[in-house]
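Aim 2 progress update. The chain analyzed this quarter is reproduced below.
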Amino acid sequence: MVVGRWADVRRDAVARRLERGPATSGVFARTNIGGDTITLLDSDAQPVRTLRAGAGLVAATSVQAQAPTWVVTGTDDVGVAAAAAALTEARLEQHFALAVDAGQDVPLPVTGAGTGP
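Predicted structure tokens:
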């Protein structure tokens, strides 16, 4: 498990896969290098929404046959705290990736109409 602001978490090679999107990470969200945005994707890997201040992300990703690495991160300290709070069995049930925006869980990939990037 890797926990922290994206600028710190991205030092981990497995976590850094999130910057390359679902084809690489299996997670339907992308972070930018600076860590100030999290872009949520639909099942076609198309951007649906971009989260900024206070947003968090909990995601599991792995390389080849390795055990998954859980990434708990956010755009800032508030986002990291929101993501850490979401790391519960009840909130992650049937999900391996979950964004948190303004206190609301957003299962990934995003379904239905979004608000645009």
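Strands lie at 2-5, 29-31, 38-41, 47-51, 56-61, 69-74, 97-101, 104-107. Residues 98 and 107 are 5 Å apart (CA to CA). These observations will guide the mutagenesis experiments scheduled for the next reporting period.
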